[in-house]
Design brief:
The chain has five helices and three strands; from the N terminus they run ααβααββα. The protein is of the alpha+beta class. The protein has a single domain, classed as Winged helix-like DNA-binding domain superfamily/Winged helix DNA-binding domain (Arc Repressor Mutant, subunit A), CATH 1.10.10.10. It has a three-stranded antiparallel β-sheet with strand order 1-3-2. Helix 1 runs antiparallel to helix 4 and helix 2 packs across helix 4. It is elongated, with a radius of gyration of 18 Å. The two termini are about 35 Å apart. The relative contact order is 0.14. The model has no long low-confidence stretch (mean pLDDT about 90).
């Protein structure tokens, strides 16, 4: 994988490593939500939810737009497909390694 792809993968997996961020992502993939609406769904400060949204935005998993005083967040389906593709590639690598180990075991 190229260095830029590695950095993107790091950002994706960092963003997805947190349960709250995964939940936020599920919500914004289902439809656009204001950050204020999102914050009302969690037992944490508005600022904490804003930080989670920022991590998802930096990873390219959601986008924000301003509508008056509200910031509206939407999930980026193309980015999610990119993550899925990355995972498929990793799975192929590991399946190949496991097949190689199985072959060595059968030889031995």
């Amino acid at each position: 994988m190229a260095e830029q792809d590695e950095e993107r993968a790091d950002a994706f997996f960092h963003a997805l490593a947190d349960r709250t961020r995964r939940d936020i992502l599920r919500r914004v993939l289902a439809g656009e939500h204001s950050v204020t609406e999102l914050a009302a769904s969690y037992d944490m400060s508005f600022a904490a939810v804003q930080k989670h949204v920022a991590v998802l935005e930096r990873a390219g998993l959601l986008t924000k737009r301003r509508s008056g005083r509200e910031q509206l967040a939407s999930g980026d389906v193309v980015a999610i497909r990119s993550v899925a593709s990355m995972l498929d590639q990793l799975e192929d690598v590991w399946r190949g390694r496991i097949a190689g180990i199985d072959a060595l075991i059968k030889e031995g």
